[in-house]
Write a structure and sequence with these properties.
Layout: E1 2-6, H1 11-24, H2 43-46, E2 52-57, H3 64-75, H4 80-85, H5 87-91, E3 96-97, H6 123-137, E4 142-146, H7 158-161, H8 164-172, H9 181-191, E5 196-198, H10 208-217, E6 220-222, H11 230-243, E7 247-257, H12 259-265, H13 268-286, E8 291-298, E9 305-315, E10 321-331, H14 332-352, E11 357-358, H15 377-393
Parallel strand pairs: 1-2, 1-4, 2-3, 4-5, 5-6, 6-11, 7-8
Antiparallel strand pairs: 7-9, 9-10
Helix pairs in contact: 1-3, 1-14, 6-9, 8-10, 9-10, 11-13
The structure holds nicotinamide-adenine-dinucleotide (NAD).
Nicotinamide-adenine-dinucleotide binds next to helix 1, strand 2, helix 12 and helix 14.
Length: 394
């Protein structure tokens, strides 16, 4: 299959590329890939584990290998031998220039940026360019995944974001104030009938106009924001309190991370999208909203090693208050990148089964699943398996 990554030179993208190529060459095993579990074995026949990569970027380095090496210099997140072993494959992946329209001040810290809007293009011309890039790369077995830096939350506009006609009028009339990059990428992908996943908290395909477009074109899409770390643990553990009739009085989550993602998230407006996405889950998992604090701060020396400290204050039998603490200490790209490959394969599987619109059954992969209130990881996993089983047997 082919995978088009928005934010192709990021650490999640380049680690996914390196991992896929290393697995294909027999240099790494499939630990961390959900679709490699025995349950999903039938997928091997339908969507074999073989990837061709392309993508859009705004940091125009010479190729994906250079980007991966740059991440490695800072993070040492994979073995150097593995990187060298996929050098040839990654050196041939060259991203196309993308758009960073209304992506906020956070991305300015990423270094020298080149975007289509800096060429003075109108919205219509930007969409035409990104669509042309995707079209030239794509075949019938192509999926687009957004793994670009997190955008600020845009104001939803009734005229331009609610209907397909309104969205296209916005493009036609060059109303740049109302468009964000993630919407334009999602629109282009769906219009070309390419399944689309939003691994970020950005708005992407979740505005009503794009949901309608995906239904009209019968294109599967899913999002938002990969559930990889602290939220994964939170939505796995919170149900435990509910099952045992323990009342959570308060839950404090404090996340620190460095690297580009941490830098972008340290900008207030970009951070807001992530906090909203992380914050909603407790109420949904427990059925009530305990006192909650969710914080994310930039901590340069950690680079891509994200640490999350959580403190839970809970009430048990006879009104007694008790405490639970955990620390999640993971390498963000290592937990995230296999899920990008999983999502790509499962969305292509959905397309092959002629499924269109939001694929709610993929909620398992997201912090803030679109059109789905189930955040309990255990339930989400059962829903995913049931969906897969039914389609694979059909
Ligand atoms: P990163 O900063 O390493 O990579 C982002 C890449 O996107 C950069 O190369 C940047 O130049 C590029 N980019 C930014 N805006 C762009 C645009 N408008 N068009 C094209 N390219 C653009 O970040 P990362 O750690 O790889 O994370 C990527 C995204 O995934 C972030 O939004 C992050 O919040 C999200 N995410 C990550 C995890 C995780 O565990 N790592 C979990 C959930 C979500």
């Amino acid at each position: 299959m082919k995978l088009w990554l928005i934010g192709a030179y990021g650490i999640v993208s380049t680690t996914a590329m390196a991992g896929a190529k290393a697995i294909e060459k027999g240099l790494a095993d499939k630990t961390g890939l959900v679709t490699a579990l025995p349950f999903f074995k039938p997928l091997e026949e339908i969507v074999p584990f073989e990837f061709d990569f392309g993508g859009h970027e705004i940091r125009l380095l010479s190729n994906a290998f250079v980007a991966l090496k740059e991440h490695w210099e800072k993070n040492r997140h994979v073995d150097l031998e593995l990187i060298e072993a996929v050098k040839e494959e990654l050196s041939s992946i060259v991203a196309k220039k993308g758009t960073a329209l209304n992506c906020g001040s956070g991305i300015e810290g990423l270094g020298k940026l080149e975007t289509l809007e800096k060429e003075g293009l109108s919205l219509k011309e930007i969409v035409a360019r990104i669509s042309k890039d995707m079209k030239e790369f794509a075949n019938d077995e192509t999926v687009v995944v957004n793994v670009a830096s997190t955008e600020p939350i845009p104001k939803i506009n009734e005229r331009y974001h609610y209907t397909i006609e309104g969205f296209e009028e916005m493009i036609e009339e060059d109303k740049k104030d109302f468009a964000t990059a993630s919407m334009l990428y999602a629109y282009s992908a769906i219009k070309l009938r390419l399944p689309y996943a939003n691994f970020t908290p950005s708005i992407g395909s979740s505005i009503p106009a794009l949901k309608k477009l995906a239904e009209e074109k019968n294109v599967p899409h899913a999002g938002n924001d990969g559930k990889t770390g602290e939220t994964l643990v939170k939505t796995t553990l919170a149900p435990m309190f509910a099952y045992r009739n323990l009342v959570v009085e308060g839950w404090m989550s404090y996340n620190i991370l460095g690297d580009y993602d941490g830098k972008v998230l340290s900008a207030k407006e970009n951070k807001e999208s992530k906090i909203v996405s992380k914050d909603k889950v407790l109420e949904k998992a427990l059925g009530y909203a305990p006192y909650s604090i969710t914080e994310i701060d930039f901590f340069p020396s950690l680079v891509d090693n994200k640490t999350a400290f959580d403190f839970v204050h809970f009430k048990g039998f006879l009104g007694k208050l008790m405490k639970f603490y955990f620390i999640w200490d993971a390498i963000d790209a290592i937990v995230a990148s296999p899920l990008v490959l999983d999502l790509a394969r499962l969305l292509l599987f959905a397309k092959k089964n002629e499924i269109g619109g939001v694929v709610k059954e993929l909620a398992f992969f997201f912090k803030n699943p679109m059109d789905c209130d189930v955040v309990n990881t255990h339930e989400q996993f059962e829903i995913l398996k049931k969906w897969f089983n039914q389609l694979a047997r059909a």
